[in-house]
Amino acid sequence: QMKLLPFNANRLVDGGFSISLAYSSILLSRGYFACTPIAPSLAVDLQLLELVKTLFVHITPNTTAWCETLEVFLAGRRYHLTTKDNLRRRFGNAYHWYSVLFMSADDHLSNLIGTHRPLPPSSTEGPTRPSDYLRSRCTICFGLDDWRKSRTLNLKPDVHTCIDACFTQQRSSDQCGGGPDPPNPVRSVFLSDDEVTSMEVHVRSCRGRPLDRGHKRKRPAATEEEGDDYEDGMRVPISVLDGCGDSFLAADEKHKKASTQFFADTGVMAMLCRHDRVLWLANMTSAGEKQHYALALIKKLFDNLPTDMTVGLLYDIG
Question: What are the extents of the domains in the chain?
Fold first, then answer.
């Protein structure tokens, strides 16, 4: 018999029909979502799934902790599951595909609205507002239709973004965990590998002959006879700039911050708006913080903006 997990869950109840006769459409009509499309052994109340989805918006998603809490809750009411992790895997699968269904329905509704939206007047000047993707990421930054009217005479940027890298988010290169990923049609803020690789090739072509391995380009040191001097256009001595640059390991892209031997992805570089909303992420596969990751994020941003929109970019080693 198939088990049902109702919204007021104090036990798993019998579904009333055998696993072989349980179809997803029948369960949906009764307000339940199956853990598998064919012969499911568990179906979860849609209200309960919506509660968990809303909960995971405000805390870090963790179906393992939630299912363990539910198992303890059921055990306290003298209902014990047959095996360990019996609930976690089935509930996790139901929750995942419920989220996929929710996002697919949302995308379908957005496409319907887009097809009935009046087309803008023909123009060769390109888009007049940020892309729908950016408008969905942060309405405050990118949602104004009359953003040109809000410009001031002091030439402030129209939008502000920031970029930084984190080398604590890594993915193991263990071959046992490799192989193709299962179908996972969910939205992603990550740049594709092709976009990052294309920018890497472009940066290498612009640089021409690469520097020797381990060599760091520096300004010629000022001799005692010449004395210190100031950087062109700045009121800062060259010696101060050199000392500042040498003190920042992040400015040296050849400095190894993560092992490529043990990690396939060594870190993540993120672009956020001024309201801390993630715009895009880029997986880093090199040992250091190379330039092309930031440039790939910047290119992606400008591809989704009008050509006359100005951007203020914050980067700690820029």
Answer: 3-112, 132-178+186-205+237-315
CB 84 within 8 A of CB 90: no
DSSP 135-153: HHH-HHHH--TTTTTT--T
Residue with tokens 């990550």: 190
Token pair recorded at residue 299: 């290119």
Question: Residue 32: helix, strand or coil by DSSP?
Answer: strand
Half-sphere exposure of 145 toward its Cβ, with a 13 Å CA cutoff? 1
How far is CA 243 from its chain centroid?
35
Query: Residue 8 is encoded by which pair of tokens?
Result: 């007021």
Query: Cβ distance 94 to 49 under 8 Å?
Result: yes
Q: What is the pLDDT of residues 57-66, one digit of tens each?
A: 899 889 999 9
Distance CA 30, CA 252 (A): 60
Instruction: Tell me the β-bridge partners of 282.
Output: 269
Question: Tokens 């700045």 — which residue?
Answer: 234
Tens of pLDDT, residues 128-182: 788 888 998 999 989 887 777 766 666 788 899 999 888 777 666 665 555 555 5
How far is it, in rounded angstroms, from Cα 302 to Cα 85?
46
Instruction: Name the nearest CA neighbour of 251 among 296, 220, 285, 290.
Output: 290
Predicted local distance difference test score (pLDDT) of residue 305: 92
Give residue 238's pLDDT.
75
How far apart (Å, rounded) are the C-alpha atoms in residues 201 and 292? 9
Q: Which residue stretches of the chain have pLDDT < 70?
A: 1-2, 4, 7-23, 83-85, 117-126, 150-154, 170-186, 209-228, 230-234, 244-265, 287, 317-318
